[in-house]
Each structure stands twice: as C-alpha cells, then as structure tokens.
Specification:
single chain; alpha+beta; Arc Repressor Mutant, subunit A; SH3 type barrels; four-stranded antiparallel β-sheet; 11 helices; about 40% helix; elongated
C-alpha cells in the first residue's frame, strides 16, 4: 500500500475524531513504527495538515475544522491523467517508457474507490499507426532544445527523401501523429506523418523558424491537409446525418444554416481529399451544394465506385 493510501486512511480517522497514532497506523498497515511516523510527518509538514497530539487520548487530532487533502477531491484530475494514458495507448505510443512510468505513477495516486475511474475508461481510435519510440523521443528533444531535425521521410506513394526541418508543432489528428515543421527542401511549412519518419537525428543548427505562425497555419482550413484556403465548401445534410452534424464542430470558422431541405454546413477548405471522404461517409444523406468543381469531383468518385459493383 502506498504512502498516500496510508495518509488518506489516517486523515479519515482524524476527521472522524478517532485520535489515531503512529503505533496504530503501523499495526494496521503492517509497516514499521518509523515508517508510520514518517507518514504522519508527511501529512503535517508536506501536506500542511493542522494536526496536534492529545496526551490524554494518546492520539492526533485536527486543530482546525474543514481540512481536506489536496488529492482527496481529485477524481476529475485522476480521470484526466487516466484519459491521457489511454489516449496515448490508442494513439500508437504504447511503447514509450514515459507512458509506462505514468501508468505506474497512477497506481500510487489512487485512494480507495478511485480505481473504479481508471477501470471505467475505454478509448478507441480506428486506423491507429504506431510511432517508433526513438523517432518520437528525438523529435521531442528537437522541439524542447529548439534545434533542427533531420530524418528520412516516406511519402504516401512510397517515395523516400531526406528532410531537414525546423519543428513547429506536434499534431494529433484523429488519433494519428504529425509534425508540422518548416521544410528546408520545400522552403515552406509542411505536415509530416510521424509513422512515415525514420532515422531521425538532431541537427546542430538552431531552429530559428517562427512558431507564432504555426497555429494560424494549422487552423485556417478544414481537415489534416493544411494550406491556404482555396474555397468555401457548402455541404447539405439530411435525415440522421443532419442531426449528427448539427452537434459537431468540423472547423472553428464553420457556419450552420437550417434550410427547408436540410442542414447546410459551410467551411473553409484548402484540399479536396478529406472533404470528399466526409461527404461519401454520409452516403445519400450528404450532398455538395458548391463549389461546382467539388460537386463534380464527388460525382465522379461515386460513378467510379458504382462501376466496381456493376449493375444494381
């Protein structure tokens, strides 16, 4: 049993005016008398508990009413720590030693009853791609030290290139990890999929690229394919799709308009790919209203898909 659990039980006895003492604490938890005394000193000196000793009752008591432990009312904090742990597991970081240490540390923070919070969590992402711990650690070191980073990068087409970048932001999007950085090769900001990075090493050159513009660049358009906003997409949803989208946030600058024929969602787009996938996701309950080139691209994709299945 951890020191925090012993302190918590001792605290409960104090609150209930049972006048606990060191020998009783040692016997209850089968620890040495010296350990019990250190626990009480921890409660008094580190957690600032207002405890005094009553010679007549041979036990401690609180000299002030209403004292509570810092972690006594912390189920929400524990839930957030546990959620961080679960999200890291689902986001492909299960092999990181830091994650293991956090998992072990959570065990020492638990007080009676709070373990149910950890056990109640269930998180799941689809299409999770694990990140090599060595790559992740090197990237974090580069960002912490303000250094340039070099690595091998494999594109979606399988082409491999050597890159030197100035890291700007670590991005998690739908459970996948990305690095938003200034790319020396392209002389422009680029988003790199961490699962496609290998042989990452720190560069001696300092990263002098402006981080202040990173958030604006990332947030200006819908989806993971970042860049300058090229157009505003208008998507009409009907049926259950309209009910779902009505309560969702696709982008900070989106607009929703209730119409007689459905719910119209407008949002800024810099790349067609993800918005096309979202329209197809909702099938016949989603339709592109504009612009025309997006409507035609979706129509061509539907026709190509239909051709795979022959006549209905």
């Amino acid at each position: 049993m951890s020191v925090l659990e012993r302190v918590y039980v001792f605290h409960q006895d104090l609150k209930n005016k049972r006048y606990p003492n060191a020998p009783g604490l040692a016997a209850r938890f089968e620890v040495s008398l010296a350990t019990a005394r250190r626990d009480i000193a921890y409660l008094r000196d580190r957690l600032l508990a207002p405890i005094l000793f009553d010679q007549h009752k041979n036990g401690f008591y609180y000299s002030e009413e209403g004292f509570s432990l810092p972690f006594e009312q912390s189920p929400r904090i524990l839930l957030l720590l546990s959620l961080l742990n679960k999200l890291a597991e689902e986001a492909g970081l299960v092999d990181l030693p830091e994650l293991k240490r956090l998992e072990n540390r959570l065990g020492t923070l638990l007080i009676p009853g709070h373990s149910r919070l950890v056990e109640s969590l269930y998180c799941e992402f689809v299409e999770v791609e694990p990140v090599a711990p060595a790559v992740f650690e090197t990237m974090l070191q580069a960002m912490a030290d303000g250094q340039m980073l070099c690595f091998q990068y494999r594109s979606a087409r399988g082409e491999v290139s050597a890159r030197k970048v100035g890291p700007l932001r670590l991005v998690n999007y739908q459970g996948r990890w990305y690095l938003f950085a200034w790319c020396v090769l392209r002389q422009a900001p680029r988003l790199f999929h961490l699962a496609r990075i290998s042989a990452a090493v720190l560069d001696s050159e300092k990263n002098l690229h402006d981080q202040a513009t990173a958030d604006a660049s990332l947030a200006q358009s819908f989806g993971i394919f970042k860049g300058e906003v090229l157009y505003e997409a208008e998507l009409l949803f009907t049926g259950t799709a309209a009910e779902l989208v009505r309560h969702q946030r696709w982008h900070r600058d989106q607009r929703l308009e209730e119409r007689a024929d459905g719910l119209l969602l407008s949002l800024p787009v810099s790349d067609d790919r993800e918005v096309v996938m979202k329209v197809l996701q909702y099938g016949a309950m989603a339709r592109v209203v504009g612009p025309e080139h997006l409507r035609l691209r979706v129509a061509r994709e539907i026709a190509a898909m239909s051709g795979l299945y022959g006549e209905l």
